[in-house]
Design brief:
The chain is built from 19 helices and 13 strands. By secondary structure, the protein is an alpha/beta fold. Strands 8-9-7-10-6-11-12-13 form an eight-stranded mixed β-sheet, sandwiched between helices. The protein is globular, with a radius of gyration of 25 Å.
Length: 456
Amino acid sequence: MRGDGLQAGATTVVGEGGGETVRVYVCAPPQDARLFVSALPPGNPRGVEVVSFGSDASTLEQDVQQLGVTVVVVSPQVRNYSDELVARLSRWPDLLVVVGLAPPTGDWARQLTTAGAIDVLRTPVTDRTIDVFVSSVPGWLNRAARMRAGPGWVAALPAQAAQAVQAMGYRQGVWVFWSPKGGAGKTTMACNVAALLGVVAQRKTLLVDANMNGGHVDLHMGVETDTTLASLAYLYHARGELLPRHVQEHVAPWRAGASLDILPGIQRVEQAGEEPLRGRQGQAFVQGLLDVAGRMYDFVVVDVGSSVNSPVHRTVLAQADGVVVIATPDRAALVDTKTTLETLESVMGLERSRYTLVVNMWTDQAGLRRGDITRFVGLSEAGLVPYETTGGMLLAVNTGEPFVLMNLKASDPRTQQVVDALAGIAARVYPPLDTIWQHRGRPVKRKTGLFDRLFG
């Protein structure tokens, strides 16, 4: 708990000086809510007041909206609690802080912060807990406000739009981004589509770096972890089985509140030739990984290397529900794409119905016509991504932040064209994203007085 470092000395007064009172809802078992209610009643002089409480989370979102609260304290021990609820509250369009109230044992603190809680308090609740809570409120509100003001902020959908999205059907599956030629942008494409699915659309998504040439998904996504595809392959080689908990232990969550996990790839090229990833052993591992991950996640997005000589690459391409082939509008890249697809068709029995084409780095000055490209390659077009001329794509890669999340509120029309094109590709995978995309990055609604006090 970050608040543990605060000193519980003199009574803290948040609303001192005429500021707006912070309204709190406590969703916790009665024994945990009791002291919050008695110590912080409406009208108390500390500037933080509990306006309501309950031990059932089924109406929590409705209560938050109707009571106009700014802070929610939620315990995972209440009825109808879910991590998804915390994730939705953490993306509330109004300024809202979600604080977890974790039992003293177990992994609840990590689970709550991963779901989106800004901080965690521990039970049992004591007078010191209340002091730490009140002292921490200004800092929490500042952090929440700054997050909402950032370029990558994605608000939860309005209720009516959320109901419409929920009513839409979609197909779960494994989606592979591949190009027979290096430098086409497949890693960048895979990372951005995964971010759109797991962060913007909040569908449970796993991004896998299965590039045996070294795709560096971890660098693109700003993730640092000791567990990788290679370490998971070694575990499978030793045990002869792959279970969901093995996968869960090896993936890294992208950010708190996002539904996106990352499985980084090999860190050295020679690992691709080691026994766990070589030949039939490598094929069996990849088959097991995609099978298990496909049951754990709504979408598995895979970045795979260009060479079809790798058994890992061939297995991924064979097992995928959909393969997005990335090509650039130059003759050499298109010839490579056409001939490699013909080879896969004759040798591996490629089903062209599972393959679609994305033309990346498109420019009208290339001297090619879109219709000619699709006819030549023999695939239908799933998207056309304009050449990015502002330098923003390179900046995104170098800072480890997906381009689409850095530019949700882009004002430059050149950037907006690229972002919209990437969103269109992701919507081919998950059609409800079209509706979600229309509501992205909505500005936070300022609560009179409170927001001004934070940033005035």
